[in-house]
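Tip: read the tokens left to right.
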């Protein structure tokens, strides 16, 4: 019995469970998943990554196999489009899973009220929890940024830096 399309979070959890072995077999990590209505159809989007980055071929292989597994599972009763891509170099980070994935990568974030006298932080994300981010600045300093104060956070690719 398929879930109602409107219950996106529960549906995505079941879809992720069904696809976990496919992800593992391809050496991929799920960064984010989205299920949303677009016009008359639904769109199921996966953002996947692996050490060194996921390429087009990785995304195509995963998409093909994931589509087959989902068809057999009967989880999705609506017609939908399946899209698989790698996260962008300046991807915005919102969910806990995305922050955990971003540990070890360069990030930039903004807060709504000053932390240590600053509203913007940039550097390597050392750790991420539901409460705080720990960011190592290029000068070696470390800042703890409360998640509750974040207004925006994203990956900060090196070519973007001034």
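Filled-in amino acids:
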């Amino acid at each position: 019995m398929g879930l109602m399309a409107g219950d996106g979070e529960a549906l995505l959890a079941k879809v992720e469970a069904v696809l976990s072995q496919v992800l593992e077999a391809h050496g991929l990590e799920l960064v984010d998943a989205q299920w949303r209505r677009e016009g008359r159809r639904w769109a199921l989007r996966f953002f996947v990554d692996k050490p060194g980055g996921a390429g087009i071929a990785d995304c195509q292989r995963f998409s093909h196999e994931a589509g087959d597994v989902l068809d057999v599972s009967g989880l999705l009763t609506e017609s939908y489009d399946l899209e698989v891509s790698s996260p962008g170099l300046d991807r915005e980070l919102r969910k806990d899973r995305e922050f955990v994935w971003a540990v070890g990568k360069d990030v930039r974030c903004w807060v709504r009220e000053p932390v240590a006298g600053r509203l913007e932080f940039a550097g390597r994300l050392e750790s991420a929890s539901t409460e705080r981010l720990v960011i190592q600045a290029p000068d070696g300093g470390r800042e703890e940024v409360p998640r509750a104060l974040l207004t925006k956070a994203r990956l900060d690719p090196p070519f973007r830096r001034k």
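The radius of gyration is 18 Å. Residues 8-85 form a domain with the GMP Synthetase; Chain A, domain 3 fold (CATH 3.30.300.70).
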